[in-house]
Amino acid sequence: MKKTLVYTAIFTLLIVWSCKDKFLEFNPPSNQFTDVTFFKTAEQFNSFIIGTYTELLRFSDWTQMMGYISQEARPKSTIPMELTAYMVPTQGTIRNYWQSMYMIGSRTNTLLAKLEEAPATLSETDRAKIEGESKFLRGFAYFNIARAFGNAPLLLETYSISQTTVGCIPEDQIWDQVITDLTTASQSLPTRAEWGDANYGRATKGAALAFLANAYMYKKDWAAAAKASEDLIAMNNYKLAVTPRAAFSEALTPENTGESIFEVQYRDGGFEWSNQVQTGSLIGAFTAPDGISGDYAPFGGWGEMVLGQDLRNSMDPLDERRSLIVREGETYKGERMSEPVILGTTFKLTQKNVDFSTKYWLGKSGDVDGSNVPLMRYAEFLLNYAEILFEQGKTTEAYAQLNAVRSRAKLPNLVVSSDREIFMRALMNERRWELNTEPNMWFYYTRTGRLKDLKDGQGQPYDPKYNKLPIPQSERDQNPNLCQNEGY
């Protein structure tokens, strides 16, 4: 009965705030929980926080989108996405990205407001956890809003009708708030060990520090970024997995690899905190070859997110990260496969002249489908730290971080160079080889001004307007005071 009541409360309250986020009114039935009766115990706050995490489950779609707009990934037709048609204010995935981030922000505003009103019986330990997790999620939401859209609304209060006409503020001010929230989160959140195995995947002190360092990179505050990075390293909680493939393994637990800093929890049915289980993602089906059969891929494979061959062709033949990319004629055995599949022999491929990422395609479905999507892992953190150190003039130390990631891939060390262009090209190559088909790669191009290095599907240089996504037209239709990014 207790579990049923908690579920009912979560469902009711999330509908209330989901509707408020869309500027609609909702009057819940009188026999269900509302915010007046609900936020009284740590368990109730915890339940609402867990419900907030559900918005992260869309990251498999966003990962697909980021691959498309970088032209690294191809849709099912294998033809590069026509960016002039995709990067438009009416594009559905971009709209979902915007709405989900503001949904997280709205729910965490509610959590923080209710925390101020919580009974004195709520312990200081519980208050710190609730505040830390709420501010991490809000900081993470606006982190994504700022880097994707730039100037945008910043909402820090619970919903009111005035929010339907709020305008945009400068991106730099949003970054200030992100840093404020993530700083508090880094001081309040438990470590992964303190959360315990039952809560693996929830926001941690390390996750807050990793994203805090990244936020400071947008502000070009390299000293503060270095301090956050060094605080994370000093925790001694993280390390590179033994091989590139092990970083995406289900057979090796995250505790063994230590590479996971923050992931969307799809694996094994999603998060199971407080017995609340979410269903898996479709990213395994997206990245498996189209129609390869249910013996080898979830739902038989859909091939909705395949790779052009330029990526693997650019990699050193000795680079072990090439093992995460397979193509026709090669043999692959995912962890969920009882026997290997030879692409194009065991099963005829319908998609030609493309590659397939095996980061998430591990084989057929188990009880549920879906591999976790990493939102920050230690290899990515080290590449960020390398950039931070270089910007501080610590060239040798910067290359040491870069070479640590290369060494895991069985590549020789790069020669240290103080030339910024040489370093940045080397760093961006490592990011591309390490982070392809992960959701953050696109934003490294935009933050560092490297879109000029990319070509669109027609071989033309990227339009500078793509440094920011278009603000969804559906949102601007509701709010005439919303801005729009230049060129859209």
Describe the structure.
The chain is mostly helical and 488 residues long. The protein has a domain at 282-369. 46% of the residues lie in helices and 5% in strands. It is built from 19 helices and eight strands. The strands form four sheets. A two-stranded antiparallel sheet has the order 1-3. β5 and β6 (341-342) form a beta hairpin. α11 (222-235) runs antiparallel to α15. The longest helix has 26 residues, at 92-117. The chain is globular. The N and C termini lie far apart (52 Å). 46% of the residues are buried. The model is unreliable at 1-33 and 269-278 (pLDDT under 50). Residues 454-488 are annotated as: Disordered. It is found in: Cell outer membrane. This is RagB/SusD family nutrient uptake outer membrane protein. Its main location: membrane.
Task: Give a topology summary.
Blueprint: H1 2-21, H2 35-38, H3 42-53, H4 59-69, E1 73-74, H5 83-86, H6 92-117, H7 124-149, H8 171-188, H9 192-195, H10 205-219, H11 222-235, H12 254-257, E2 260-264, H13 283-287, E3 306-307, H14 310-313, E4 325-327, E5 331-332, E6 341-342, E7 355-357, E8 373-377, H15 378-391, H16 395-408, H17 420-435, H18 441-447, H19 473-478
Antiparallel strand pairs: 1-3, 2-8, 4-7, 5-6
Helix pairs in contact: 1-3, 1-6, 3-6, 3-7, 6-7, 7-8, 7-10, 8-10, 10-11, 10-15, 11-15, 15-16, 15-17, 16-17
